[in-house]
Task: structure prediction
Amino acid sequence: MRVTQGAFSFLPDLTDQQIHEQVQYCIDKGWAVSLEYTDDPHPRNCYWEMWGHPMFDNPDAAALVYELNECRKAHGNEYIRVMAFDSSPGWESVRLSFIANRPAEEPGFELTRTEGAGRKQTYAIRAYATDRPEGSRYA
Amino acid sequence: MADGADVKETPRGRYSAGVMEYRKMGYWEPDYEPKDTDIIALFRITPQDGVDPVEAAAAVAGESSTATWTVVWTDRLTACEKYRAKAYRVDPVPNAEGQYFAYIAYDLDLFEPGSIANLTASIIGNVFGFKPLKALRLEDMRLPVAYVKTFQGPATGIVVERERLQVWGRPLLGATVKPKLGLSGRNYGRVVYEALKGGLDFTKDDENINSQPFMHWRDRFLYCMEAVNKAAAATGEVKGTYLNVTAATMEDMYERAEFAKELGSTIVMIDLVIGYTAIQSMAKWARRNDMILHLHRAGHSTYTRQRNHGVSFRVITKWMRLAGVDHIHAGTVVGKLEGDPATTRGFYDTCREDKVPMKLENGIFFDQDWASLNKLMPVASGGIHAGQMHQLIDHLGEDVVLQFGGGTIGHPQGIAAGATANRVALEAMIFARNAGRDYLAEGPAILAEAARTCTPLRQALDTWKDVTFDYASTDAPDFVPSATVS
Result:
């Protein structure tokens, strides 16, 4: 399967040049860009690991693309996403997020059910990747 | 049309028993300077033949505040000058003979804090049937910060909704399940699953799906949540479906909403026809229960569409932002339902901006400060399809839910393919915009490029390429950008 989180997962995987364009768009808007990586792409796993802090005063997308390739060297078989943060009053949150790297194999998710009264079911979603301990998934 | 202040009556003359013109009773004050805390209403009045527009405006001020048809001595037991609404300005409507814009100011103390029911009981309670007027329309309102702050506002708001869904940088995508009536619960959930798995963020119950013989609400909720969870597992994304909890009583609505919560739904839905008090109750419930609250504006066109009579939808939008819903259908511009581009822009600004400046060409008559009340996510729904993606993003921006009902479910290769087509079209267009392309001019080319690697998009473009809804709008602004006011 293909995890389709982020703004551009339905497009073919982005080239570094395309990532550069999108990141420069964010920087030109005044947003701080950063990278986050994870081996647990659960839809509600909001805290991926930070690859350094957001680049608050960086004018050039090339710096982020450089860091992306550094991050790939360490976590190339995990998910890596680009985040752009907007500190404007009334927003103060993420403005853009897209996946910039994904593992070669994406095993997907298991949906478990616990039967309850009145046909009610309690659902849980679990990434198959988390079968293995953190750090050795997608090895 | 300030035709001078009327001679002030002496108290003895003012309060003698009998009938007196409203303008002489204190409801017309052309020199009045509205206070920062006043609520201001702008009415379009069409007086009966022979009725003076200033007297008509004063009558509207009177009948929407303290007046009755005759003088009453009991006014003198109150600070009556404070409680009288004051018409302070009457302008002819451009290019509309016999119609006038009347500005009326109301003291803050005329209203119960935090109650849309109370606000509307005054402002639109009696006056719309007033005989000396042929027609009356509430065009806009200025809501002072002091009053705005007495309301909860949207239970969740755009920013937190996005954080909960983890979707940023693109419009959200939805679809209303069709046919809107008749599907069994099991069949209904099939549509939800296919659409969400194919790439939509949300599916939606229609306004009149409640609990009917062909599908009772509990059955629908159970099948829909099976579909939502399966689709989340298939994609790795947070998915949702607007479970319509509209019902005959508050008790029924709370029961349905509680069940939706127990099942893990992120969102519930209500219809505008449940009424302002029920809407505010559900907004408070939604805030308490971390639930997004979708409002379907069912019924609004009965009073919003005609320009001479009723309540403008921009006013309904303001009331709904105060009342505390998170989503509101606000027009598509290019779809099948009423939606002049400039007027629709005014609605969208009212939903999403913290400060909305006066902009007559968009139908916005006042500066409006929302004082950090959450933002309300507009929803575009009704006769839109993937081939219009560049126009939709140009008109409606990024913080909007684009709902393609027929444009998803009517896809020749099925529902999931329809959803994928819409999602690919959306992502390709946002990508192109961010990359600096002139996406509006190049829209069709951008879609054609994306369709090269996406057969469902190719098929969608071929199927609906010639579909447009090009009719004259009935609710266009009265002012064009070059016009001067007053």
